Amino acid sequence: MNEQRRRRINLFRRLPWIKVLIISGMLGVVIWGVIISLKSDEPKILLLEEIPGISHEASSGDGEVKISLEFSNIWEYRPVLTEKKLIALTFDDGPSEHTDRLLSILKDNGVRATFFALGSRAAAFPDVIRKEAAGGHEVESHTMNHVDLSKLSEVGVRSEADGAVASICGALGKERCIKYVRPPYGAVGVAVRNVIKQPLMGWSVDSLDWKIRNSEMIKAEVLGHAFDGAIVLMHDVYDTTVDAVEGVISALRGDGYTFVTVDELVQERRPNLETGVLYGIFKP
Ligand code: NI
Q1: Model confidence, pTM
Q2: What are the C-alpha distances in Å from 228 to residues 24, 116, 255?
Q3: What is the pLDDT of residues 107-132, one digit of tens each?
Q4: Which residue, among 189, 176, 179, 205, has the nearest Cα to 273 in the 3D structure?
């Protein structure tokens, strides 16, 4: 044993705290290793698809995936809330001679929409109003004659509102049937706020179909502005709009949207709307 090494060992003996440090360090490494190995033994959180014995049912309208348990030995299950993207297609100013074809397209594609009908048009096409309602669509009021309500007196607004209720609800054999009123041009004044007893329903995506009159461009306009919770404005009085609808539906579906009526969107996102207030956006 040479002199240098002996000196080093003596130093080690004289300084016991170095031993304590080294031993505790080694212990720490061992404990850390045990913790890591225990952690990796934790059960992996499985997706529903990976759990044997659980099968999906179609997701229900209440935003919750319903599952059926085929085995009773699954001891824990937490329901998964789906993150659905919702969108409401709305059609104004009808019914018209084009509405029937639109209803067929909606039916073929399994989509329910909302019709903001004019009272004057409902009087001319009461059977189409009934067909809309029978198809599970929502039928609401776009007033009687499509005049700018912000320029009318309270008496004038009341006449426009009540006329539409009488005409639309009359076609459906009901005294009252209107839950939302869409003011023409989205124009709202004090008289409107004072008189109309329903929440006012605007829109958040204007398809510009009334101006564009080209089905491919209408589709591009809707897709370019769609978002979760949007209300899309279209008009069932142009054949180019009806031509666009199937493409709009399949493209939005491709983007993961679920189609709902306006009232379904309201109930899902923001129930208890106030009367006299204009709404149009229902983001999550
Ligand atoms: Ni209109």
Answers
A1: 0.72
A2: 57, 21, 10
A3: 999 999 999 999 999 999 999 999 99
A4: 179
